[in-house]
Write a structure and sequence with these properties.
This protein is of the alpha+beta class and 386 residues long. The chain has 2 domains: 213 residues, Lambda Exonuclease, Chain A (Alpha-Beta Complex), CATH 3.90.320; 142 residues, no CATH class. It is 44% helix and 14% strand. The chain has a 5-stranded mixed β-sheet. Strands 6-9 form a two-stranded antiparallel sheet. Bound molecules: iron/sulfur cluster.
Length: 386
């Protein structure tokens, strides 16, 4: 019996927030291939790269199939993005290979897992990378989140589902390490979290069970919120439209600082509304208040990469300036960060024309790197602008 409602590890967090989300999503026909092609291509490249480095026990036919799939996906994607996809894929493969010191570790890529649910039938999922080590007493689960703008916490329901599948399959596993790789994560350092077998089983009882029960209940309800951003039904969902409508009609000046920060997160694509919130936020930050983790660049400008990136030239400059290549495991929008971390390298990049200024943005979000926000450092007297 297949799990009803098509609940999977990938959508379980959203189902938890909005029990009706899968029902509503099914009524829509708006899953756009172009939305998921870059992520799917990055995953395929990452798996192929790992297969070059370690034996994952894949037969040749399966590897050829994946190669064909990657080729097909890449053909839908702007060629400009290919280098970032390859960079993310290779970076992920290197990371996974280096994640264990056990010479006898077993590696798995694009690994199908099954979560036993005695009440509703099995739930199926596909984990990006799994490493079994120390004679299968420990496991590592590594997920690639290509294109993820905001760094996520590793203890997330998707990974906990994979952990549950592993502890169900291997009674010998005592501890599991969870890791999310976000190639454009600002600090560029993947975060690890550790859970024990008992914690995974406890999570299944306290989170997974009630979430599935709520989704399958006769009178399940749609609940809109920030989580709608990851919902494919968002564009046509009445509940989401009502919720956004109620957010849009509120005056930024009447919001508290947390609400204002959330407003800024949500409305970046709605310039008309965003501008009013941004003006209010600049005013408050200028007066010394803290609005989420937003800050104002000291020179009022934002540094961005040029649209054409010469990867080989950048790698050569990185070597000259002793910048570890792992640091380049970013996507283009993080250019400003380099200025704080490696000022000489940043200067060289700029002189070579790889970075230009974009003056339209005066307010920046600095998610994922809160300790380095110029506002906070400036308060401590540590930050010096160029
Ligand atoms: S858009 Fe939001 S409210 Fe609508 S189904 Fe998706 S998660 Fe639920």
């Amino acid at each position: 019996m297949m799990h009803p409602n098509n609940i999977t590890p990938s959508n379980i967090a959203r189902v938890h927030e909005c029990p009706m989300t899968l029902d509503i999503e099914r009524q829509m026909d708006q899953i756009r291939f172009c939305d998921y092609a870059p992520g799917a291509a990055a995953h395929a490249i990452a798996a192929l790269e790992l297969l070059k480095r370690v034996d994952c026990g894949w037969p040749k036919g399966k590897i050829d199939q994946l190669k064909e799939q990657a080729k097909n996906l890449l053909s839908y994607i702007d060629v400009q993005e290919h280098k970032w996809i390859y960079g993310a894929g290779m970076g992920a493969a290197n990371f996974v290979k280096g994640a264990t010191l056990d010479p006898d570790a077993e590696f798995f890529a694009e690994h199908d897992v099954t979560i036993d649910d005695p009440h509703n039938g099995p739930m199926y999922g596909r984990a990006d990378f799994i490493v079994l080590e120390n004679e299968r007493s420990k496991a590592k689960i590594i997920e690639l989140k290509y294109g993820q703008r905001i760094p996520l916490k590793a203890v997330r329901p998707q990974l906990m589902c994979y952990a549950l599948a592993l502890v169900q399959e291997h009674p010998s596993i005592k501890q599991i390490a969870l890791c999310l790789l976000c190639p454009n994560d600002r600090p560029g350092v993947p975060q690890w979290a550790y859970v024990t077998r008992e914690e995974v089983l406890e999570w299944a009882v306290n989170y997974l069970g009630p979430t599935i029960a709520a989704a399958l209940a006769k009178h399940s309800k749609a609940i809109a919120g920030n989580h709608c951003m990851g919902c494919r039904a968002m564009g046509g969902c009445r509940h989401h439209a009502d919720w956004v409508g109620s957010e849009f009609t509120r005056e930024p000046v009447l919001m508290n600082n947390n609400e204002l920060a959330r407003h800024l997160d949500l409305l970046q694509t709605r310039e008309d509304i965003y501008n009013a919130a941004r003006t209010e936020a600049i005013h408050r930050i200028g007066a010394g208040e803290v609005v989420g983790d937003y800050y104002i660049q000291p020179n009022g400008d934002r540094e961005i990469w040029t649209t054409t990136i010469d990867r080989a030239a950048i790698v050569a400059l990185a070597k000259t300036h002793n910048v570890p290549l792992s640091y380049l495991f970013h996507r283009p929008r993080n250019a400003s960060n380099i200025r704080a971390d490696y000022p000489d390298f940043f200067k060289a990049l700029k002189e070579a024309g790889h970075i230009r200024k974009q003056s339209a943005y005066k307010l920046m979000s600095n998610r994922g790197n809160p300790l380095k926000t110029p506002l906070k450092l400036r308060k401590k007297g540590e930050y010096k602008s160029e």
